[in-house]
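Two quick folds needed for the group meeting slides. Do the first one here.
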Amino acid sequence: MIEFLWIIGIVLVIALLVAVFVFSVYNKLVALRNRVENAWAQVDVQLKRRFDLIPNIVETVKGYAKHEKSVFDEVTKARSAWMSASTVGEAAQASNMLTNALKSLFAVAEAYPELKANENFRQLQQELSQTEDKIAYSRQFYNDTVMKYNISIQQIPNNIIAGMFNFEKKELLETAEEEKIAPKVNFES
């Protein structure tokens, strides 16, 4: 009878240790998943800030460059794509599209010296530049957080618990292909 109680005691202790282990890993994975979601929310906040600045910049440029309709259409299309994005990947793609549209907008602005001298435009341009820096930092932080999460759900024995509770790999934010190409610099005039 005493041997039977010992066996039951040992089984209970092992079951308790396994349960503690599962709870511990599960809680760690939940914390990492929430950090990923928080990191995305931070990227989203900065993208929203940029999104809110763009109409002011567009209206300022429109006042000087009325005939540059295609550039304004490109910016509008990119903003619409960002608004309708429902996944991280779609939002990242729309953000890249918006970045390219803004480059075109600022290229147009270069052709108008009186616009470049406009204090309101310069202030908006500076705010946008600061926001772009914050977006870059937020994207980097997001990718670091996603990397930690993805590693954690793929490592043994975490991968067993992650599989049991449907923890799925998260998508990294990647740079658009056109942004990976180094710009050509020509000092000859």
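Then this one, please, same format:
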Amino acid sequence: MDALNEIHDFLACETPSQWIEHALENQDTLLIDHAHCEKKAASTAMTLMFRYVDRTDLLNKMSRLAREELIHFEQVLELLQARGVEYCHLSSSGYAGGMRKHIRNHEPARLIDTMIVGAFIEARSCERFAKLAPRLDEVLAKFYRSLLKSESRHYQDYLSLAEEYAGEPIEDRIALFREVEGQLIESEDEVFRFHSGIPPKA
């Protein structure tokens, strides 16, 4: 998959093996947080649509993204129900907040940085789906493989919007967020979540 190769080049590092092993041993938590991630992704897209009402390309791409993320949310809920796992509240890891604290607070820099952060979050999701799928049961593996195409397109949509609205090279901002994201992924985290660093030791 060419898009997956592109994503590996985009990210600073691969998901550590400690996270993969912990995820395989804690699939209920993984799925519950995955559902939260899909819901948050849809909410983020909707927020951007309300904030940037004059950006037609953004409105179209974020509208499509929000619909797809909500469908994924419903699909994860179905998986949870089929497995007898109760969907419940989970605290967040420090991943997204750690990325967003580097977003500039003036426009259009705020929009550009937000798009770049979105690209990294979607890219990491895609990378983790691909790593997990070969080691999961048939039903969950099939589902995670089915998400690869849409998640990789979401990554591309966010990145293309960042480039479009910047009107100038953004490699320095991408490099900054690549370094931040890599550090968050390779650092120890207080909790295990779909987007988190190395899980806490038992």
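Slide caption for protein two: Helices lie at 2-10, 17-25, 27-51, 56-82, 95-100, 109-132, 138-166, 171-186.
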